[in-house]
Design goal:
single chain, globular, mainly alpha
């Protein structure tokens, strides 16, 4: 299955800790719904795979608002390397990005969602910023991890570990995490309640409850 061009092929959904690029304008979710039609071809399809490297295209529904906005800006500038995303995001202006983020954010994740299962010890390096349930982020700049595809989280962690994906905060954190623990970390956060595929946002305006 080929990887179709998508507005948000992302690094977005997942594990990056974004850096603010300045004050954000208020997003118009109705306009964002129109602009985000190209997102659904990949992010709205359950288990849709990026071809190479192969991983599930991340869930974006309910993702933190400012994180989405900043990530799109970083794809547009090329700070986040991804050819398809750069082409798509660079065609948007700042207000377009705000509008798309407002639409995808929808209701947002529930920061007080009950923790599902027993967290592995390695998640202690994650919870200070992302919350014990992966949904109570320290800042709206940080992504929600709850409900994200496990293989996408592993992919993002490996990119941070190798230096392919750059972020000063994550670089310091990931240096102290053993790669053998990535699978357990990713599995735990993937089981939490939070993010969903964009088809739920498009059709229902919110993520369906588990």
């Amino acid at each position: 299955m080929k990887f179709r061009p998508t507005l948000l092929a992302l690094g977005l959904g997942a594990i990056a800790i974004a850096t603010s690029t300045g004050a954000a304008a208020e997003g118009n979710a109705e306009n964002g719904k129109k602009l985000a039609y190209t997102c659904h071809g990949c992010h709205g399809v359950p288990n849709y795979k990026n071809v190479w490297p192969e991983y599930n295209v991340p869930r974006l529904g309910n993702q933190n608002l400012k994180y989405l906005t900043v990530a799109l800006a970083e794809y547009a500038s090329g700070e986040r390397p991804h050819p398809t995303m750069h082409a798509q995001a660079s065609s948007l202006n700042a207000q377009d990005r705000e509008d798309i983020a407002a639409f995808l954010h929808a209701e947002g994740v529930n920061p007080d969602a009950e923790v599902v299962g027993t967290p592995p010890a390695a998640t202690q390096t994650c919870v200070q910023c992302h919350g014990a349930n992966g949904a109570k982020a320290l800042s709206d700049d940080y992504p929600a991890l709850a409900g994200q595809y496990a293989d996408y989280i592993v992919h993002a962690l490996k990119d941070y570990k190798s230096g392919k994906r750059k972020n000063a905060i994550m670089a310091g954190i990931i240096a102290g995490v053993d790669e053998k623990d990535f699978e357990a970390i990713a599995h735990f956060f993937s089981q939490q309640t939070g993010l969903c595929d964009t088809r739920h946002i498009r059709l229902e305006g919110k993520c369906a409850k588990k």
